[in-house]
Amino acid sequence: MTSEASSVLDKPATSPISTRRHGDVLIILSNNPPVNALSAAVRLGLVDAIAQAEADDGVNALVIACEGQTFFAGADITEFGKPPQQPWLPAVVDRIENCSKPVVAAIHGTALGGGLEVALGCHYRVADKSARLGTPEVKLGLLPGAGGTQRLPRVAGVRKALEMTATGSPIGAKEAFDCGLVDRIVEGDLVPHAVAFAEEVRDVRPLAKSSERQDRIADVDPSVFDDFRKENAKRFRGFEAPLRNIEAVKIATEKPYSEGVIEERKLFMELMGGEQSAAQRYFFFAERKANKIEGLPENTEPRPVRKVGVIGAGTMGGGISMNFLSAGIPVTIVEMGQEALDRGTGVMRRNYEASAAKGKLTAQQVEQAMGYLQPTLDFAELADCDLIVEAVYENMDVKKEVFGRIDKIARPGAILASNTSYLDIDEIAASISRPEDVLGMHFFSPANIMKLLEVVRGAKTASDALLTAMQLGKKIGKVPVVAGVCHGFIGNRMLMPRQIEATKLLLEGASPEQIDRVHVEFGMPMGPFRMADLAGVDIGWHRDPNRIENVRDALCAIDRWGQKKGAGFYDYDEKRRPSPSPVVQHIIEDFAARQGVERREISDGEIVERTLYTMVNEGAKILEEGIAQRASDVDVVWVYGYGWPVYRGGPMFWADSVGLQTIVDGLKRQEERMKPDFSFSKLLLDKAENGESFTR
Ligand code: 3H9
Description:
Elements: H1 3-10, E1 17-22, E2 25-30, H2 40-55, E3 61-66, H3 89-97, E4 103-107, E5 110-112, H4 114-121, E6 124-128, E7 132-134, H5 148-156, H6 158-167, E8 171-172, H7 173-178, E9 184-186, H8 190-201, H9 223-231, H10 233-236, H11 241-254, H12 257-273, H13 275-289, E10 308-311, H14 315-326, E11 331-334, H15 338-357, H16 363-371, E12 373-376, E13 387-390, H17 396-409, E14 415-418, H18 425-430, E15 438-443, E16 452-456, H19 463-475, E17 479-483, H20 491-508, H21 512-522, H22 528-535, H23 551-557, E18 570-572, E19 578-580, H24 582-594, H25 604-624, H26 631-642, H27 651-658, H28 660-674, H29 682-689
Parallel strand pairs: 2-3, 3-4, 4-6, 5-7, 6-9, 10-11, 10-13, 11-12, 13-14, 14-15, 16-17
Antiparallel strand pairs: 1-2, 7-8, 15-16, 18-19
Helix pairs in contact: 1-2, 2-3, 3-4, 4-5, 5-6, 5-11, 6-11, 11-12, 13-26, 14-15, 20-25, 25-28, 28-29
Bound molecules: (S)-3-Hydroxyhexanoyl-CoA (3H9).
């Protein structure tokens, strides 16, 4: 290995790695904020420190620990795709494992990915009781590529290694201890505990090398791999990386370590070079970028939010409240009548209890969350709230009336938010005396579960109000994205062209099943018609069964309101399984005949062009108009709000993969059929013509 030579040549002036002695234990400390990613300088420093320990007869054991918020959170993702820099992480981990003196990892925060692999290279692992350990590479479309797929099953067992690598979910210190991944859990000052542990094991030989262990991988029933794949088939649908992780762990049980790591590397490089990992790595940074507000004046400070008011205890109001309650923020929830209030709070309690039944919460946590809730019929009780979220009926007059009431009650400086999905925030703001305090907080249903939060910035929204809503969103576990004011903001606005074209395609000859299948094969959780049935075909219906202007009206008029009625675009059996409906087919054909639409065979390709390419076009308009701050924000909205497959990055990243000229060509092919509903985004045309892209 050339690393020792390069350590002399390339050593940075200030290394993130430092060492200090405690008796005969050498403590190697990393300080590479924010997350101690294993960048080149860290890797180099580690190798040098190991060499220093080997050369020093006064050192009998080593501790590797990190300063700051966390143990190594993985390889440095910003280095991916750039020319590799020596020493490579796999070699660093091998160097640690082959150290002739015992090495103890002292883990706090999160030991993730390459960080866990470093810990697995150590001969022992001591963890703080709040530490979390995991291999999230799969979420980047990768697998642990520094020996992790081969060492982890040898240390933690095959089943645990499968779960950790293929799902990417981290485990807590206790679970890690129970499966053998951690040797000791400690509380309080971590490094002194790790040093004490190192002193205990300094003379133990042979050294416990993870790569040499056989006990956990011997006699493994080979059916475990297929079973695991089947159990998780739905979760892994469309993704390449989970399957490669399973394959790599299986190899660990079939081949010697030295061969296993070669296979692991091959699989890692294949994934790294693939489009899915590129999309997932892009998305990792897109999600983090979304939290950054463009043009925010320097020194903007968030307003304190100690108490939240929610108006409306319906499905949305209840779900919204739960987010704050779960984060320990008291909520005053207001309703018009006692019955609606009781029903709403009852649903919230039942939702919490259902989570407790699944083991996600303790009974005590349920009571604690519900204890933060103050239900009331009295609007005046909102007076001491720092943020008030309105979640009433989606109608401008109703919203204005509610805002008018809040205006009279809310304390000065309180942020006044509307949960509207479509309506004009500026119009609402203009109707009260303090437009600077008004913004949109558009939660997605079910609001206690869906991660997306569109924070809508009105023309007069104060910077500090916007910052507060964004930070609060993060605090309650959401992924907040800034959106400008327009009909439907980012997400729902892009849904509209899809819906218009999907409905037209029905009349022209496609079936709901065909259109839905194309979307599911693309990777969406469901197609537009299954989604309509789930959400309710009657949403937004004018409620007049004699006024039939489109297929949707016709379905509503005969009570086909979707899953809740057992019939919508599909028929549903008692287990809510859908089947094609001859009635619907008849309605569609009847409408086509009445409107003189000639029916023909529709290709899957046309469906993609008319429903997905049009979304890209709308996304481009959204960018052009400044409704979204950046293309990657559009992608974050669609991945978190509508289940766009993350392995395709989001609509704008996907458009770049397809090629913008190809998108434009496809739209031109369909332009005549889509008129008058369709018009081109100038930004899309310009970018395509200049060979540019949205996200790369
Ligand atoms: C790997 O290890 C491959 C190996 O198996 C094989 C190699 C051969 N690199 O999330 P936050 C940045 S793959 C570079 O907001 P939190 C992040 O972009 C890696 N940068 O903080 C952000 O920057 P900015 C496997 C990284 O407290 C800042 O740190 N590991 C990395 O909410 C703060 O991040 C993972 O996938 C990184 N690895 O959460 C773990 N990680 O401030 C990924 C973070 O400029 N990381 N940054 O926007 C995480 O899951 C979370 O960051 C963590 C902290 C839980 C650690």
